[in-house]
Amino acid sequence: NSRDVLHPDARKRISGVFKGELVYRRSDVSKALRANKWLYQGRRVKKSEMKQPAKQVKKRKKPVGKGFQALNSYGVSEKAQDEMISSIDKNNRRGGGPEMDDLYGVWQTESWSPPYVGPTDAIPTNEYKNVELALINPGLTHMDLPRLAPIARKLGIPYAPCMLGYEGHGGNRAPTIRGIVVHDHDVALLREAFAEWESHAAEKERQERKSMILKRWKRLVFGIMTKDRLDREYG
Predict the structure, then answer these.
(1) Which SS3 state, helix, strand or coil, does residue 2 take?
(2) Bridge partners of 182?
(3) In the structure, how many helices (H) and strands (E) does the chain have?
(4) How does residue 73 score in pLDDT terms, banded at 50, 70 and 90?
(5) Contacts of 171 (CB under 8 A, 6+ apart)
(6) Which of 162, 185, 200, 229 lies 20 to 30 angstroms, CA to CA, from 75?
(7) 92 near 99, Cβ under 8 Å?
(8) Distance between first and last Cα of the chain
(9) How is residue 144 annotated by DSSP?
C-alpha cells in the first residue's frame, strides 16, 4: 500500500529473507496519515516531527462538478476562475512537480484529546463554522432534535451546527450536518424549551385539524341543505 511505512527501528527486528527481499514484522508496518487525520485517532503529530514526514504522496485531485457555473454575485466569473486555474498550473510546473501530502507514522505522534470548553468559552468551530462530532470537545454536547437551532437562537443560547460525517462515494461525498452543539449547562434549558415548543406545535396542529374538519362539515351540511331546498322547490 502506498501509505504503509516501516518503523525506523524495523531493520533491528528483521524476521528473515524471502526471494532476496527482507521480511519485516507485521507490527513494524503501519499506515501513515496526514497530520489532521491523526486527530481522529486521538493522536497528534509532535511539533518536532512536523518538518520530517515519514512519507510523501501525491495529493489527490478534488473532483470538479460537471456543469458548474460560477456565480457572478460572488465576484468570481468563469473567466476569473480559468485565469486562476491557469496561474496555479504555472506555479505547480515552476515548483518542479505535483503538490504532495506529508504523511506521518504513529511513532511521530503523541496522545491527544480535544481541550475542555468551559461554560463561558466560545464554541470552537472548524473553517466551515461547524463542529465535527468525532472531534467534539469535553464540555460540549451534541443535541439532535428537530427545529432546535431556531429555539436556541431565540433564547440567545450559543450553538454551532454539528457535522456527523460524510455521505456518498468517491467524488460525490457530501458532509452530513444534523443537530447542534451547545455547552453542557445549556442542555437542560434547551430540552425544556423544546418540550414546550413541541407541545405548542402539537396544540397548533390539533387546532388546525379541528378547523379543517369543521370547514369540511360546514361544506357538507351546506351542500345537503342546498340539495334539500332544490328538491323542495323544483322536485
Answers:
(1) coil
(2) 141
(3) 4, 12
(4) very low
(5) 62, 63
(6) 162
(7) yes
(8) 91
(9) -
- The position carrying cell 527486528 is 13
177 contact partners, CB below 8 Å, separation of at least 6: 130, 161, 162, 163, 164
Strand-pairing partners, residue 103, are 55
Please give the C-alpha separations between residue 129 and each of 126, 143, 155, 226, in angstroms, as whole numbers: 5, 17, 20, 62
pLDDT in tens, 2-54: 888 888 888 888 888 888 888 888 888 889 999 999 999 999 999 999 999 99
Binned at pLDDT 50, 70 and 90, residue 71 comes out as: very low
List of E strands, the chain: 4-6, 16-18, 21-23, 29-31, 43-45, 55-58, 100-103, 109-111, 131-132, 140-143, 160-167, 174-183
pTM of this prediction?
A: 0.63
Instruction: Name the residue among 158, 51, 54 with its Cα closest to residue 107.
Output: 54
Residue 133, CB-side half-sphere exposure with 13 Å CA sphere: 15
Per-residue pLDDT tens over the stretch 166-206: 887 766 778 899 999 999 999 999 999 998 888 787 777 77
| Residue 148 to residue 190: CA distance in whole angstroms | 8
